[in-house]
Structures are given as C-alpha cells and as structure tokens.
Request: fold
Amino acid sequence: MPIQIREKDDTVFVKFSEQVTIQNIDSIAHKLQSVLETKSKMYVVDATGLTKVDSTFFQLLVSLFYSIKQKGHALEFVELEANHPVMETERLLGIYLSKKIPIRKEHS
Amino acid sequence: MNFEDNKELFVEEARELLDSIETNLLALEKEPSRIELINDVFRSLHTIKGSGAMFGYTILADLAHDLESLFDDIRQSKLTITKAITSLALHSLDSLSILVNDDGAELPLQDLRDQIAVLRGKNTISIKEQDKSPISSMEEATDGEENKTTNVYRIYFTPNRDFFHRGARVENLLQELSEKGEIYVSANCDGVPCLEELEPTELYLSWIIVFSSTLTQLEIRSIFIFVEDYINLRIEILPITDQEGRPTVPRIGELLLHRGYLAPEDIDAIRNEQKPFGELAIKSGKIDQEELDAALAEQKMARVASMERESRRESTSIRVRKDKLDYLIDTVGELVILQARLYQEAKKEQLAAFESIAENLARLTANLRDSTMNIRMVPLEESFSGFHRLVHDLGSQLGKELTLTIRGANTEMDKNIIESLKDPLMHIIRNSADHGIEKPEQRDKAGKPRTGTILVEARQQGSKVEIEITDDGAGLDLEKIRAIGIERELIDPSVHDPQLIKNLIFEPGFSTAHKTTGVSGRGVGMDVVRSNIEKLRGDISLESERGQGTRILLSIPLTLVIIDGLLIRVGEVIYVLALNQVEECVNLTLAGEGERRSVISLRGRTIPIIELRRSFKLSVDDRATQRHLVIVDAEGTTVALDVDAVVGKQQVVVKPFTMNLRRVPMVAGATILGDGSIAFILNIRELVKSKRGEEQPLTKERV
Reply:
C-alpha cells in the first residue's frame, strides 16, 4: 500500500511511497480519512518515497490540509529536493504546497 | 559614422549577444526542450556570423557559422540538446569571446570545428559546407518564425468536476503548453473541500496560466481541442504596448485586480502608502505570497515580451559611447552648479523678473538633470548575466552541485556603479561556492539537499539598491576565525563579540582556508570587496549561522554624481553631509558655560556626540551654551555631529578628487557651491568609525 500511517508522541506520520495517481487515489483517500479520527494535534506528511504523482495527489493533500487546519491542528510537509518527482509535478501544476504548508527539514 | 565606429559597435553588440547565448545555453542544460531558447541561440549566432564577416572577422564568422548550423539541426529536430552539445557550445563561446577582441588569436579552433562536425554526424566537413561563405549564407536562415511576435496570454482554465472521468489529464495539457513557450501556472485550490467531503476522482482545481509564446490564440485553443467539451477556457492577450506601440508593463496592482485577487477599493487603499505595492497587499491580508508570485511572474513575462517587441521596432534606440555620456553628465553637473549660483544671486538682488527667470531655469535644470541621470540607469542583469556561467564552472571545478538563483535583475542603477560592482559580487559568489557550500556528500550527512543554493537578490530601497547574496552552506566557523584573529594579533583574546569576530573576514589578507585553491583562499577578497563597496559610498554587512549559511548585504547608492546634501558650518568652512544619512537636526542647550557633553539622550536613545571642531583640530568655544547637533546614521550606528551651524539643504554635484586628497579619510568628495566656493563632502562612515574606534579598541596596538 503506498500509504503508511503511524502515530508516535502525539504526532501522526503519513508516509507515501511508490505512486499516488488517479489509479489508486480512492483507496488512499479512504485510508487517509482515518488520520482525522486520531487525537494527535500534529501531522507530518512524508512524500520522499514517491516516484510518481498527479493532480489528484495534490488535491488530496490540500484537502487534508484544510481539514487539519479546520480542527486547529498543525500539518508539516517533509522537505523534498528540488528535482524530486513530487516537486516537478508541483511546479508543472502550479500548486505550491511549500508556500501553504510548513516544511519540516528532517525526515520523519 | 565611419567604418571603425561601426566596427566598435559590432564588438559591443557581439559581446552582448555572446552573453545572451551563454545564459540560454545554461538554461538549455536544465531544460533542453525549450525551443524559444534554441531559436534565440540560433538567431544570435546568425547575427554574429553575418556582422563578423562584414567587419573582417572571418575566423570568428567561420566558427559562428558551424555553431549556427549545429543549432539549425537542433531547431529542425535532427539533433536534440545534450550535455555534450551545451558543453561544446560553451567552449566555442569562450573562443568566440576571445576572437571578438582579437580575430587573429591563436586558438585550437580546428579541434572545436571538428567536434561540432562529429556532433552533427559529419565526421569531416564537406567541401560544399566549407565553401559556403558566411556572408552568402546569411539569407538562408531567415524563416517565418523570426518575424513571429511573442504575445503574453492569460489563460483561465477551469475543468469540469468530471474531467478525470473523461480520461483527460491536466498534466499533459500543461506539459504541451510548456513546450511551446514560457509558462507560469498558478492553481486555485479554493474549491477543494475538506477530506470528509472530498470525492478524490473529481477535479476541484482551476488554473490561471500565464503563457508567453509566438503561438496564436487559435493555436493555443487547439492544444485543448480534445477536452474542450469538459472545460471552460478563456484566453486574454496582455497588452504589452500602448496605443502608439510603445512598450508598457502592467502594474502589479492591475494584475492582482485582473486576476480577481483584489477589488478596486483595495487597490486605492493600498496605493495610499508609499511602499512596494505587493508588499503592502500581502501585509493587508488581502492576498498571499503565492498570489503575488503569480502576478510578478506575469509582469516579468509581459516585460520580457514587451522588451523583445521593442527591440524589433526600428530606430527606437541608438547606441551612445560611454565617454560621450559621461561628458554630458559632467556638463549637466556644471549647469546645476551654475544654476544654483544664479538662483542665489537673483535672491540677493531682489529683482522680480530676474528671480522668476532663475526659478524657471531651476525647474528646467532639475528636469534636465533627472533625464540625463536616467539615461545612465541600466538594469543590473547586465552585470548579473555572467554569474550563471561562473557558478556552472565553479561547480565543475570544485566537484560541488550548485544552483544560482537571481532575483530583481531588472533593478536599475547607474552604469558606472554596476561596472564597479561586478568584481565584488564575483568575489562573494566565489567565496560562497568554495568556502560556504559543502560537498554533496557532506550536505547529505547534514540532511541538506545535495545541491547548494546561492541566491542573489537585488531591490531598490529609496535612493539605494540593496543586493543580498545568500548561500545555504556551512556558515562561518567563528571559533576558527577568532583563533586566527588572535594568532595574527588582529583581536585581543578577550574579544568574544560574534559581530567583531565575523568582521575579521574583511581584514586584509584574512583567510581560513587551509590551502589555496584555484578559486579562493589567498586572502585577497573580502577586504577588497569592502573597500570597493566603500568607494561606491555603499555599506556591506554580513550575517552567518553555523550549518545554515551566510548572508551578505550590500547597500549601494543609485548614483554617485548628484546627491542631496545638508550644508553645515564648522568654523568658517562649509561642509556637506549626504542627506540620506541624516536623521534629524537638534538644538541642544547646555546648562552653563564650560559644560561638555559626550552623549545626548534623544527619545530614549543614548547617542554619542562627535564635536567636529575637535575632530578638525579647531579651537573650541567653551562659553557657548547653544549647540547644533545633526543626528546621522552609518553602518547601523547613530551619532550626533556637533556643528557650528546648519546652513540648509542643497543638491550638490560630487566632484572627483586628485590622488592626494583621496587619502583624507573623513572627506568623501568635494563640490562647488552656488557662490562658487568649494565645499568638502564629509565621509560620515569614517567619522562614525573614528568615534567607534575611540570607544571600542579592537587590537592590542589600537589599545
């Protein structure tokens, strides 16, 4: 499964790997909904393991960000290298997540 | 204009074209499919070849011809851009740069030409190819494309919610657009619901795309033809020329309004404050950084397209030799002085008609002065353009992965200042690359991206331009610097102030490098940088955090020729202070005769006083109880200059000094006043430094 969720010290770590595209976005979104049921107030999204994404992935992240923000909780995004596939797709689509979501320097 | 004059113009133009080719080649290395850059390189080489042959630069023309043919193959998709091609083209460019200065220079050109032939799939250059004279081949390269005009479009792209269900992909459309011009995409995420309400396979996003291209509206629509039933598409052309065809660039406020980020009433409210519009709009909370970036990108594209169109217009600009321009500025300077003198005389004589003429002349002179100064203002990009190549070559030389980002390259400054800034900036960038940015494996260990970034950012701040050079390298090792400073007796072992330690890198010959590299480490650098910046009446400051990087800030006046001055009197002599360093003037009443004050308390600040009479070794009248203080600021330190009188404000023309007078530290220059007398312009920084020196001795010797 290209999504792994674990909870540690009041923080939920969401780690994506392989591909997140229109092909599997439904099941990933379903799994992601469970994070909102936790009691943690801090969420960290790690996309370093992803090799391919499309606009559905970004839409999902924006949606997650809105939900977390609405609850008054915080979300951080693990920093990616400029030439990472996620960053390349981000630039192509003009969805600048790094300007919306705080960046976490070290890997989760 | 004779042949020699034209030849000089060719040399100047060829240098500019070579710079532009270099910039494009470096960009192509990263984005090989950018056809507009390939066309640009091709066109520039074509011009160099044709003009070079015309002025007898036959060897240069031959090499340019080979390169042009290589890029023609790429244009026609017979070849694709590879690292080998850009590398060879950059080497050829170095040879072309030498040949522009000396066409007879002995260079291994045959080797380069053979390599180009091999890349073109021609192991030997065919007889037919060799015989083709550069001049005769000038006509062959013109095609319809050269006459196509670049337009800047704003495309509003709103797909239907079921867009994905139709098998359509946004990425493919944007990718296709990006291959056909320059593109800046901004997605609107406002329609995306919370996770609980999200249907992941439906599309909630919409886009505003700014697209600079030679494509027509119809051609753009054809890219969307297969999805046109599932989208809402609106295409607008941005006006980049006015009704008379003159170039025009939309203002940030207009762009934010058009994009729907701001309402007309917001524009008026923000405009009332005197700060950069974008900054204020963010501060007002009406827009965010992302929205501003999108509008700035749109403005940049409009500016580039507008400039491109302008360059195509005939007879709109002429080239003027720099010495002629300098002479014009000197003459206008003389006129400003003479006009000030006339004005004073007119006031003295109190003749109404005379006064009126003097006032009108003053207005006209001010207009002439501003227009003349404006002629010499050029964008910094002229100086910045070579830095990409510098960083590219430093990366290869040092085995480091480096990226250079330049912002604000269109900020304008006096051409003479820009020329003087090039060397200091190169020193700083070299230092960042060599000492600042770590090797990729060290960066890996430190959890940093393998590629180190150097950011050069310029912006205008009032009458100054700030240039900030930031790197995300290792930062300064203060302990090491301190140890070397103590060893070389530059500081006392008791010194622990981080700022004093950081400033040691500006000491002559100071270096922390273990060994001298070809790039830096000889200790000739930062002291030269500082003295060059100070010669420009600028300031340099440095911040550094271990492991995070270093930031160097240069603050330079826009122009050095004419300054707003505050005239003061000390003894019988009038001096000038640069008005932009003056905070305010204060009258101080002492309690009684003989009282001396070394500081003044002003609105909660304790400010040291410098008695200029003492600094200039004049007798001090201890009986005076009324003192005039001018509060000035330099390098972040505020002092009060105790003067005999404040005479008034006046615009002054800075006159250069002879070599002997350049050694007087407290004097920055001289000027001629309205009455014909000479006044010295005081170097406030040196005055402050001398005061600071009295209070904080750094070295044992100075103690």
In short: The interface with chain A takes residues 164, 169-171, 174-175, 178, 184-187, 189, 192-196, 198, 200-201, 203-205, 207, 209, 288-290, 293-294, 403, 447, 449-451 of chain B (CB under 8 Å).
